[in-house]
Amino acid sequence: MAEFMTETEQPSPAVPHPGTAGERQGRTGDSAGPLDGQEAAALLERTRDLVDPELRAALESLPGSMRRIALYHFGWQHADGTPASGNAGKAIRPALVLAAASALGGPAARTAALRAAVAVELVHNFTLLHDDVMDRDTSRRHRPTAWTVFGSADAILAGDALQALALRLLAEDPHPASGPAAARLADCVVELCAGQHADTAMERRAPGEVTLDEALAMSEAKTGALLGCACALGALYAGADGEDVAALDGFGRQAGLAFQLIDDVIGIWGDPRHTGKPAGADLEARKKSLPVVAALSSGTEAAAELAQLYGEAHVSGDAEGIARTALVVERAGGRDWAQAEAADRMARAVQELSRALPAPESAGGLLALAEFVTRRTS
Amino acid sequence: MAEFMTETEQPSPAVPHPGTAGERQGRTGDSAGPLDGQEAAALLERTRDLVDPELRAALESLPGSMRRIALYHFGWQHADGTPASGNAGKAIRPALVLAAASALGGPAARTAALRAAVAVELVHNFTLLHDDVMDRDTSRRHRPTAWTVFGSADAILAGDALQALALRLLAEDPHPASGPAAARLADCVVELCAGQHADTAMERRAPGEVTLDEALAMSEAKTGALLGCACALGALYAGADGEDVAALDGFGRQAGLAFQLIDDVIGIWGDPRHTGKPAGADLEARKKSLPVVAALSSGTEAAAELAQLYGEAHVSGDAEGIARTALVVERAGGRDWAQAEAADRMARAVQELSRALPAPESAGGLLALAEFVTRRTS
User: Fold this and answer.
1) pLDDT number for residue B36
2) How far apart are CA B168 and CA B334, in angstroms?
């Protein structure tokens, strides 16, 4: 989850893109189709307009010491406490909560689900604060991470406070869905923790020791779980039955995995002019991202070469070495696999969604949002 | 909260001890009065019997990676995952939940409040896991702390998971008090975070820069808040009205402050044969505990001497220097103040309790537990 939605605007890395259940949408140039990114962008903007006042009110309720760190993390204050214009992220998760509520229960459900949307965003940001401490990441949303500014202890405490705030919002919500939603969100937190644990544990192991199934399970727990939970909470607030809630959870999970696959492709082959990161940053960090694990477990000659490269000591700024490693991952089939797998996961996401919403037109913003996170053109 | 209830059996450091509302209990030798520690010991044992199965069931529901760390932290597993006899602490907080429920609502309320008791114990242990990481404490309940065994990242994650588990228990509880209880527990977590922040911030400041009011406010947030919350949750499950819930919260807070004062006295003048720590451990660590801050702000000659001693570089194992420092704190009135303040806080606790329970005999185990945590004879 650490890497999710924190990056600059990026063009699609030429990923073969799935449409809705076998029916590809026109996608050339500025086509005004519903899935061309404009609908998603509008949805995200509307979500920020709805969510931000509630989110800020929740943060303002914190004691001064915690509020300061939280407002910095969300981009609403500079480190010295003066107001900042803000870059609180793209609000994908709250947008999924609201879109799911709307798709299954109409505008009234969407309005009712606002606190749940804020709670999900708070949980997401609690995990970002903690993951940055654990991973020693120094930059997020183009600013120094909170722990680099306030110290690890305060970043941990602010994360703890945001988790509490999230569950408090639901505990105070008189809506009948708030109890099941809180239980589900708490379960999701536990899954996110297990996912982050698996990620750090994987990174410590030798390149050849990580299986693709493990890497996929880790990504599902670390990235898919909260997207699934966001959709499930929206469904709960729409009064959906258990099967529909599970279908929405499945939709979010699979879309989340598709996103992670694309994010990992960008982490290797993304254009630094768009990603804001040096080319092949993930390779330089010897990260066992999904394309790398796929390449390592491909049984090809290139796999053995990659294992050797990954076993070598890290050389900082070795652009030639990174380019060579990227080529080896590609020769071992890591890029093709990731792109095909992303397409497959998107297809599964659409399939899950159709269990709860058989008519594609009723899926509302959900498909647009899923397209958005996997296409990354806006 | 880091230091609370983690220590060996300790004798009372000759604290002037308050009885119930002006009426001192006989307290010589093995007197069998209700407040001689036997009632509290029996209550705590019964609480462990009730709470442990639920607590273990909650921990068993965690994914393997998180379960392992949690079971180690609670003393139920060794680091290698083999079963351990367990030392999960004295269960003061769950005992307060159950005693408060029982005092205000009888046996049925006590039974109903069991999940809340487990939730409070989970929150307490989440904060211990995180505080140990932040404070770099290496020992807890006579065992290496979780972060020294599993690393900081895993200890942070296990703490996160325990917070989620606590709020999930309440979210799933069909009892009408569970929503208000969850909101209150989440608020308490935020207060605990602010308290821990204040503690670490205070420790970084120069000795003369910390006021006694600040130190007391920090202790109230860090130690008093969760004891108050425990009592308040018990009251909520007994169906008490807002005033009685507030009174129970006040009782727990004041008793928690009394405890912290006594704990701080022990941290300086405690007998190492009983505390299991070297004499004057808090002084060696230059900790700004309550007696030290009181001494520093006493305006006496000894205060100036203490400020100078605290400003000097720490010398490890300098028994003579520590003994001299302890004497200076005492000469500056730090010990007397702490003992008098503890007695005053206990009197306030009893007063708060009498607002909700005018007849002392109906206070049940609450007074016995408050006496227990401040007397520390068993």
Assistant:
1) 63
2) 43
Largest CA distance in chain B: 60
Q: What span, in angstroms and rounded, lies between the C-alpha atoms of A33 and A23?
A: 13
CA separation for the pair B170, B183 (Å, rounded)? 10
Smallest Cβ distance to A171: which of B160, B164, B186?
B186
Give CA–CA dist B99/B176, Å, rounded: 19
Determine how many CB atoms are found less than 10 A away from the CB of residue B70.
Answer: 27
Does residue B18 fall inside a structural domain?
A: no
CA distance A264 to A292: 9
Which stretch of DSSP H or E encloses residue A111? helix A92-112
Query: How many CA atoms lie less than 13 Å away from A141 in the CB half-sphere?
Result: 18
Tokens of B101: 């429920």
Query: Cβ distance B70 to B160 under 8 Å?
Result: no
Residue ranges for chain A with pLDDT beneath 70: 1-36, 275-278, 313-315, 376-378
Tokens of B305: 């001497």
Q: Which residue of B has its CA nearest to A186?
A: B164
HEC per residue, chain B = CCCCCCCCCCCCCCCCCCCECCECCCCCCCCCCCCCCHHHHHHHHHHHHHHHHHHHHHHHCCCHHHHHHHHHHCCCECCCCCECCCCCCCCHHHHHHHHHHHHHHHHHHHHHCHHHHHHHHHHHHHHHHHHHHHHCCCEECCEECHHHHHCHHHHHHHHHHHHHHHHHHHHCCCCCCHHHHHHHHHHHHHHHHHHHHHHHHHHHCCHHHCCHHHHHHHHHHHHHHHHHHHHHHHHHHCCCCHHHHHHHHHHHHHHHHHHHHHHHHHHHHCCHHHHCCCCCHHHHCCCCCHHHHHHHCCCCHHHHHHHHHHHCCCCCCCHHHHHHHHHHHHHCCHHHHHHHHHHHHHHHHHHHHHHHCCCHHHHCHHHHHHHHHHHCCC
- So what's the pLDDT on residue B372? 87
Residue B2 lies in a domain: no
Which residue has better confidence, B37 or B76?
A: B76
Count how many domains chain A has.
Answer: 1
Whether residue B326 is contained in a domain is answered as yes
Q: Which domain holds residue B48?
A: 38-375
For residue B19, being part of any structural domain is answered with: no
Q: How far is B168 from chain A (nearest CA, A)?
A: 5
Q: Give the model's pLDDT for residue A360.
A: 77
Put simply, the answer to whether A66 touches B193 (Cβ < 8 Å) is yes
Work out the percent of chain B whose per-residue pLDDT is above 90. 70
CATH classification of the domain holding B102: 1.10.600.10
**Could you tell me how many residues make up chain B?**
378
Over the Cα atoms of chain B, what is R_g? Answer: 20
- Contact between residue A25 and residue A132 where contact means Cβ atoms under 8 Å apart: no
Tell me: the pLDDT tens digits for A320-334? 888 999 999 999 999
Q: How many Cα atoms sit within 13 Å of A331 on the Cβ side?
A: 13
Dihedral of CA B252/B255/B261/B267: which sign? negative
State which amino acid sits at residue B224. G
Nearest CA in chain A to B158: A193
The C-alpha of A160 sits at a distance from chain B's nearest C-alpha, in angstroms, of: 7
First to last CA, chain B: 20
Mean pLDDT in chain B? Answer: 88
Chain A residues 194-213 with CB within 8 Å of chain B: 194, 196-198, 200-201
Residue A140: its H or E element: strand A139-140
Q: Can you tell me the ipTM of this complex?
A: 0.89
Mean predicted confidence (pLDDT) in B74-94:
90
DSSP letter at A86 equals -
